[in-house]
Amino acid sequence: MSLKMKTSKRRRSAWIVGGSLGVLFLFLQLFRPQLCNPPVVAEIAVPSRVRDILRKSCYDCHSNETKLAWFDQLAPASWLVAHDVREGRRYLNFSELGELPAAKQQGILFEAINQIELGAMPLRAYRWSHPDKMVSADDLATLKDYLISTSPQPIAGAAERNATLDQWMAWSHSNARPEVSPAPNGIPFFSDYKTWTAISTTDRWDNQTMRVVLGNAIAVDAIRQRTTNPWPDGAAFAKVAWAQDSDGSGNVQAGEFKQIEFMVKGAAKYADTNGWGWARWLGAELTPYGENAQFTGECIRCHTPVKSRDFVFTIPLETSR
Ligand code: HEC
Ligand code: HEC
C-alpha cells in the first residue's frame, strides 16, 4: 500500500469516528436530566449586598433558582451539572433557610464562608467553566464583615466574669471523672484529655469563642517523628471551646465552657467515617451531640477540604526531635 493511500484511509476513518461521535452527541441530547426549580420557600435572611454574592457564586447549585449556561445543558456535561445541583441543594439550600433562627442562619453562613476560604467552594470545575462567578477578595471581605457585624462582642459584667472564672478554675482543677454518656456512634468520652498536650489555639472570628486543640501521647509522638500524614492509629485530638468574656477595654478571658470534640484515628476501625472516630459533647453537663450516628456526616463534610492532610486542620508546630 502506498503512503498516499494509507493517509487517505486514515483520514476517512477519522471522519467516520468524528461522524459517529457527532451522532452519539446528538443522540445523548435526547436524555435530558430532570432539573427544575421548585418554588423558593424562604430565602436566607441577609442584606442584599451579601445575597448578591451568594446569588452570583452559589445559587446555581444551592438554591431553587438555578440558572444554567447553555453549555451546562449539553449532555454529557448536563448530567454532571444536574448531579451537582441535586447534591448541592441536599446539603445547603439558600432558598429554604430563611425561617431558621437567626443564629442558625449565621452558623450556616459561617460554614459557607469557611468552604470558600478553603478553596472548596464553588466546586473547582465550576470555577473553571464559569470564571465570572468566582468569589472575589472583595466579595469575601463583604461576607465576613457582615457575619462579624451580626455578633458584636458582648461585655461581661464583674459578676458574670467571676462566675465563669469559678467554672474555669473548677474545670482546670477537677480530677473527678464524670460519668459521661458515649456519643451516638458509640465513641466513649476521653476523660483523660486534660493530661493531653496543647498543640494549637484558635479563635473563631465570627462568634467569639476561644478554642484549644490538644493531642494525646500518640499524636504528639507522631508530630515528633513527623509521621502525621496519615496519622497513626490511636492518635487523638480534642478541641475544647469556651466563650470569650470581654470587659470592654480589651481584656478577654475564657468564659463559659461551650463544648469539646474529639477525633480518634483508626484506619480500619473507622473506615466508614474516613478513618477517624468523631464525637462531640456540649456544655458543662457534657451532653452527647447528635441525634444518631449520622451526625458525623456534618463533621466529615466540613473537614473534607483538608482531606490531603488526613482530615486534620491543625498544622503542628515544628518541634525538635
Ligand atoms: C457547581 C455546583 C456548586 C456551586 C456553584 C457551589 N457548590 Fe457548594 N456544594 C456543591 C455540592 C455538590 C456539595 C455537596 C458535596 C460536596 O461537598 O462536594 C456542596 C457542598 C457545600 C457545602 C457543605 C454543606 C454541608 O452541609 O457540609 C457548603 C457549606 C457549600 N457547598 C457552600 C458553597 C458556597 C458558599 C458556594 C458559593 C460560594 C457554593 N457552595 C457553590 C456544589 C456547588
Ligand atoms: C463548620 C466546619 C466544621 C465542622 C462542622 C466541624 N469541624 Fe472540626 N474543625 C473545623 C476547623 C476549621 C478546625 C481547625 C481548628 C479551628 O479553626 O478551630 C477543626 C478542628 C477540629 C479538631 C482538632 C483537630 C483538627 O482537625 O485540627 C477536632 C478534634 C474536630 N475539629 C472535631 C470535629 C467533630 C467531632 C465534628 C463534628 C461533630 C467537627 N469537628 C465538625 C471545622 C469544622
TrEMBL record:
<keyword id="KW-0812">Transmembrane</keyword>
<protein>
    <submittedName>
        <fullName>Cytochrome P460</fullName>
    </submittedName>
</protein>
<keyword id="KW-0472">Membrane</keyword>
<feature type="transmembrane region" description="Helical">
    <location>
        <begin position="12"/>
        <end position="31"/>
    </location>
</feature>
<dbReference type="Pfam" id="PF16694">
    <property type="entry name" value="Cytochrome_P460"/>
</dbReference>
<dbReference type="Pfam" id="PF14376">
    <property type="entry name" value="Haem_bd"/>
</dbReference>
<dbReference type="InterPro" id="IPR038142">
    <property type="entry name" value="Cytochrome_P460_sp"/>
</dbReference>
<feature type="domain" description="Haem-binding">
    <location>
        <begin position="22"/>
        <end position="151"/>
    </location>
</feature>
<dbReference type="InterPro" id="IPR032033">
    <property type="entry name" value="Cytochrome_P460"/>
</dbReference>
<keyword id="KW-1133">Transmembrane helix</keyword>
<dbReference type="InterPro" id="IPR025992">
    <property type="entry name" value="Haem-bd"/>
</dbReference>
